[in-house]
Amino acid sequence: MGGSENTFSLLSPRQRLLAGLVLAMSNFMVVLDLTIANVSVPHIAGNLGITPDQGTWIITSYAVAEAICVPLTGWLAQRFGVVRVFTAAMIGFGIFSLLCGLSVTLGMIVACRIGQGLCGGPIMPMSQTLLMRIFPPEQRGKMMGIWAMTTLLGPAMGPIIGGYISDNWSWHWIFFINLPIAFVCILAATALMTPVETETKKLPIDFAGLALLVFWIGCLQIMLDIGRDHDWFADPLIVVLAILAGIGFLVFIIWELTEEHPIVDLRVFRHVGFSSGVFTLALCFGAYFASIVIVPQWLQLSMGYTATWAGFVTAFTAMTALLAVPFAARWMARVDVRILMSIAVAWMGIMSFWRAHWTSGADFWTLCYPQIFQGFAMPFFMIPLTTLTLSAVRPSETASAAGMQNFLRTMAIAISTSVVLTAWGDGQRVSRNEMASVLQAGDTQAQLSASGMSAEQIRQFISSIVDREATVIAMDYVFFISMILLFVAAAMVWLAPKPTGKVDTSAAH
């Protein structure tokens, strides 16, 4: 399935180019949907009459569903064929995008986002596999480079497109814009890619492993999402969910290690280079995504930014990352990738420390500078990481290792979103109480009273200032924790042995 047969000769150069552009576009759409909803959460929450905390379920439900589906991709492709799976996933993605846009309740939009995530999961690895089958070896590097650019461009464009649509049209359109792209991809897959379909064979599926995977991830994510509203472990429901998630996780590990055809091949963790690499990836993506979730909400709810301008601040990271991609690829051939990754991750930690000093008086460019400088580090950690992790496993384990890498990255994003918003909310309450206990507002009240404000107006004015300052202090605390995690991740890179030889990264999703 990696493109070892001469399947590329079945298409003309023009057909190959069209198919390649369509595959890159499909990947862009799926990656875009991971971040496009972030800046729109306040709009969606206001429209559906829910809290911004509940609105974040729209982000986590998509990420968790995608994480659950990724391990199934290899089995689906072998059972039904790569082109059929890709086409079916695009059809499902289009249908659930339409239903997300038509949603009128929180339950409906979360259910449809789960459907979107389940269908979106296979699209990224399937598009990569098809690129390897469509293009001859000498053109694959260039096409995979274009494909990788869409993976970086998606998170950049998501906040801007989502913000612009939410401000000028309606949040429903952040989902409706997927429909024409999905339609073009379905047509192109049917018309162009049928000749490069893979052979199929009946394979046993590990239903018990799949059920356990869905069970423990589901329990964990529900616990993280509703814990904030239920006072965490003071509520018996949260305790039960935590115990069930823990037991489910342990049973899942035991089952997968003893199953002949596991749904997730956990044996790849015996390679130290792979384990240190993917845990570094999980920590980095978790810390990185913390800012993608928290910054747009703070800018809109506390700083008076529109969704569009909040999107611009968030997007600068991915924009500068695009500029650094060619340099990262060049340096990889000359320098030990562990050095590149360690410096890049530590650099991201320094940027997090910079953001930990933001205040409510920060202007637009003060907010943008750490975002801009962080972007230069992103390709130097993302691109070498694939080489480091996949060079640590046997060639026969590459597909399983790549699937696990993507699974852990997606789970890190989902868990990070819940944990960060919890820490932010708790930090706001603590900061507010501390400020309220030491506040000497007598002089301020006298001045405001002299300017003609009533006692109630004065109370609300002071309360809003305290709330705004508590929000930014709590956010700075989250960034400080992110900095520590990133420095730990930078050190973890060195647990991996130096990668040797060339790696076939075609299975990396």
3D architecture notes:
The protein is mainly alpha-helical and 509 residues long. It has three domains: 1-203, MFS general substrate transporter like domains (Growth Hormone, Chain: A, Up-down Bundle); 206-262; 272-509, Up-down Bundle (Growth Hormone, Chain: A). The protein has helices at 13-35, 41-48, 52-55, 57-69, 73-80, 82-101, 106-134, 137-168, 173-176, 178-192, 207-226, 236-258, 272-301, 307-332, 337-355, 364-391, 398-438, 442-450, 455-492. The radius of gyration is 24 Å and the shape is globular. It starts with 12 loop residues before the first helix and ends in a 17-residue tail after the last helix. Mean pLDDT is 81; it is low at 1-5 and 504-509. This is EmrB/QacA subfamily drug resistance transporter.
Beta-strand level of the residues, as a percent range?
under 5%
| Low-pLDDT runs | 1-5, 504-509
The first-to-last residue Cα distance is 13 Å
What is the CATH topology assignment of the largest domain? Answer: Growth Hormone, Chain: A
Instruction: Estimate the helix proportion, in percent.
Output: over 70%
Largest sheet geometry: none
- How are helices and strands ordered from N to C? HHHHHHHHHHHHHHHHHHH
| DSSP strand count | 0
Tell me the name of the CATH class of the largest domain.
Answer: Mainly Alpha
The backbone outline, from C-alpha atoms, is globular
Rg estimate, integer Å: 24 Å
Q: What is the CATH homologous superfamily assignment of the largest domain?
A: MFS general substrate transporter like domains
Keywords: Cell membrane, Membrane, Transmembrane, Transmembrane helix, Transport
Family: Belongs to the major facilitator superfamily. EmrB family.
Membrane topology: Multi-pass membrane protein
Pfam family, one: MFS_1
